[in-house]
Amino acid sequence: DGQSQKLEKAKITLNDCLACSGCITSAESVLVSQQSHGELCKLLALNKVAAAHQQKLVVVSVSPQSRASLAARCKLGLLETAQKLTTFLKSVHYVFDTTFSRNFSLLESQQEFVRRFHRQAEDKKALPMLASACPGWICYAEKTHGSFIIPHISTTKSPQQVMGSLVKGFFAEQQHLPPDRIYHVTVMPCYDKKLEASRPDFFNQEYQTRDVDCVITTGEVLKLLEQEGVSLADVDPAPLDSIGHGGGGSGGYLEHIFRHAALELFGIHVGSIHLKPLKNKDFQEVTLERDGEVLLQFALAYGFRNIQNLVQKLKRGKCPYHYVEVMACPSGCLNGGGQIKLEGESSKEELQQLERLYESLKAEIPEENQAVRELYQHWLGGWGSERALEVLHTRYHAVERANSALNIKW
Ligand code: SF4
């Protein structure tokens, strides 16, 4: 009516946060502040004065998206960046690459999809299966659509949390150390990964330790470099560490699961996959057809606008997909809120540059990675074993909003 009216002050707690990376850097946020590059520096300083039996073995696992962001900023190649970063971080003991743990996430996701496909007749929520690698999306799903959407979400752990299980499980055993004597840091493209690492599901009650103790963003690594007055370009390269014998890049979840399901369920070998953009380039789909019949229909939905459309389709019972790769950030993790902003270039060019670098990673077939096969065989008791399910999968929790103001629940 043209009158102005003073609105009540809005109160926002951490439980209202959808972890979109927009403002989660706030100093008040306890969960996030427990995980910063300052914490890592404190730990390294403590390690220097601690008695030998109290020192922690420090392991850093770097995501490929963070490497791409640092490479673009420092105008270096991806491998060179990884090798120089290893030298810079050598005050810690081991530097790993999370593309290794991503292999496990991909393999578990593909098997989970086939299991769900077979039980779709008796379980209406088996499909579509929705990806679980993005904690921003998981946080949104748990807080806003709770028990309705949770059964659709893949139980496979994200590459960060698989790495947590590998480091505090397999690697700890190899080193003859209890998990709490290892301090595990990951370098990730977003703040949401800090919230993910803080979930009670990833806390080891017996040893009172988290699978990932501290998450730092790519931007925080740059800060560390600047604090030390180091330019990555001037650092000598060092050989890369590996948990097993290999590592390497890997494709996206959608492509990988699509290929596997086509072969396993219908005996069809899929060559290159052509995604068809729908409303925008962050909502694309691909179908597998035989004699005009649609056998598989997959989509990717990036960014909250597309996620909301997807959820609406699901609620109306009009979602035609068998699988959807859901990511909270438009353009996915390369565009995460914790990545380095390139100076003097528009964000579009910056993103294209990052995409080119990231795509230059050699795609690897997880099934063919010898180290992955050995770990499945000797540590996890084989494909699809009880132990693999226990170690590589997780659970989700609907958050009750009514009493969310004081309790931080997941
Ligand atoms: Fe983080 Fe990637 Fe999800 Fe963005 S899309 S919130 S960077 S995990």
From TrEMBL:
**Alphabetical UniProt keywords:** 4Fe-4S, Coiled coil, Iron, Iron-sulfur, Metal-binding
Matching Pfam families? Fe_hyd_lg_C, Fe_hyd_SSU
Q: Does the keyword Nucleus apply?
A: no
Q: Tell me which InterPro entries the record gives.
A: Cytosolic_Fe-S_CAF (IPR050340), Fe_hydrogenase (IPR009016), Fe_hydrogenase_lsu_C (IPR004108), Fe_hydrogenase_ssu (IPR003149)
- The coiled-coil regions, if any, are 344-371
Domain (Iron hydrogenase small subunit): give its ranges: 344-400
> What GO molecular function terms would the record report?
4 iron, 4 sulfur cluster binding; metal ion binding
Q: Which family does it belong to?
A: Belongs to the NARF family.
- Protein name (record): Nuclear prelamin A recognition factor-like protein
> Which source organism does the UniProt entry give?
Panurus biarmicus
